[in-house]
Design brief:
This protein is α+β, with helices and mostly antiparallel strands. About 20% of the residues lie in helices and about 40% in strands.
Length: about 100
């Protein structure tokens, strides 16, 4: 199977650990070479966070386990890039 090079997930996480620490820990997941996290929504109970991972062979199961160990849940997988390199999206006429 082709390796996963980029993965974008939507995560619901508790307020603790803080986003900085949460992201640092996510960077230790198998196959991850870089990660960025953006706070999308904040309420009294949880934070909704978009997390983007890049690497040569990202292991989704490792990422999911790390999220759950930190008290969060993977809400959705929003983007996946696989293969020899990451193909960047380009606007088309259908994108309006």
């Amino acid at each position: 199977m082709a390796p996963v090079r980029r993965l974008v997930i939507d995560v619901l996480k508790p307020h603790e650990p803080p986003l900085l620490e949460f992201t640092e820990r996510m960077a230790d997941a198998d196959g991850v070479e870089g990660v960025s996290a953006s706070l999308i929504e904040l309420d009294q109970e949880v934070q909704n966070v978009k997390i983007t991972f890049e690497g040569d062979s990202i292991e989704f199961d490792s990422i999911k386990q790390t999220v759950e160990r930190l008290g969060g849940t993977v809400h959705s997988v929003d983007q996946v890039a696989c293969g020899e390199y990451v193909v960047e999206e380009h606007r088309t006429l259908q994108d309006g």
